Amino acid sequence: MKYIYIIVLLGIFFTSCEKVFLEPTTNSNTYQTSNLNSSSSEPCTLNCSEWEKCTKSGSGDPFDFGGPRIWKCENVFEKYRFSGRGYCYRGVQTIDDNQNTITNDIFVKVGFPTANQIILTLSNKNPCMCVLAEEEAFDIQIIFTDSESGFFNVNNYSVYNPLIDANVVYNGSGSFVKNGSSASYTLELNLTYNHNGSNHDLYLIVSNQV
After folding, report:
1. How far apart are CA 201 and CA 194, in angstroms?
2. How far apart are CA 107 and CA 206, in angstroms?
3. Which residues lie across from 185 on neighbouring strands?
4. Comparing C-alpha atoms, which of 143, 151, 161 is closest to residue 187?
5. Backbone conformation region of residue 58, classed left if phi is above 0, alpha if psi is from -120 to 50, else beta
6. What is the domain extent for residue 97?
7. Cα separation of 203 and 190, whole Å?
8. C-alpha distances in angstroms, 174 versus 33, 54, 142, 191, 198?
9. Buried-exposed string 142-154: b where 16+ CB fall within 10 A, e elsewhere
10. From the CB of residue 98, how many other CB atoms can be counted at a distance below 10 Å?
11. Residue 98 — left, alpha, or beta (φ > 0 → left; ψ -120 to 50 → alpha)?
């Protein structure tokens, strides 16, 4: 009798799991659930925005080895965060105030994209190795010019920079460029700003190549 009771409980558990995993809650504007028996070549019918692409995703069932089940709209700029070494980019920056030139190591954390915008966090400490305190980093908002080229602008972005203890307005441009056949990217950023009455140029080049 005890074994029968256990079997019944297991049956209820797996039935519940199947309902959770195979009937995901979806938004018709973001997800398109395919028929479990349909061809994998079923086209995407989602109305993705200009900053999104339609990609296939798993059903969410960890016991399902049958392949993708859901089309979804995915931001095209996620590749800059989820490729190579991930959102951690490392390289060098050069700051020039027309009198002195300073070059040092720099780390850039690439945030989650929202439409065509991403927040970059700049620091002299590695965000993948430690939690950054507010006084150890500052943010720059970048705005992509299109969905394909990787080019972006920084437009009058005002922020407190704790590394120089000043409120600064940044302007500039940059780009993400794929590193050949690898899955990583190189980020170049050119910024201008005024500090203590002098104009400064900040140039950095970083990569998330493994």
Report:
1. 9
2. 7
3. 178
4. 151
5. beta
6. 81-207
7. 5
8. 38, 26, 9, 9, 22
9. bebeeeeebebeb
10. 9
11. left
CA distance 114 to 163: 27
- From first to last of the 210 residues of the chain, give the pLDDT tens digit: 544 444 444 444 443 333 232 333 333 455 565 444 445 568 889 999 999 999 987 766 666 666 557 899 999 999 999 998 899 999 999 999 878 899 999 999 999 999 999 999 999 998 878 888 888 899 999 999 999 999 999 999 999 999 999 999 999 999 999 999 999 999 999 999 999 999 999 999 999 998
CATH of the domain at 94: 2.40.128
Q: Where are the beta strands (DSSP E) in the chain?
A: 31-33, 52-57, 70-75, 88-96, 101-110, 117-123, 137-144, 151-161, 166-178, 185-195, 198-207
- One domain for residues 67 and 33: yes
Domain count, the chain: 2
Q: Give the residue from 75, 99, 133 where a domain finishes.
A: 75
Residue showing tokens 């493994």: 210
- Going by C-alpha positions, the residue among 207, 161, 166, 170 that lies closest to residue 190 is 170
- Whether residues 71 and 87 share a domain: the answer is no
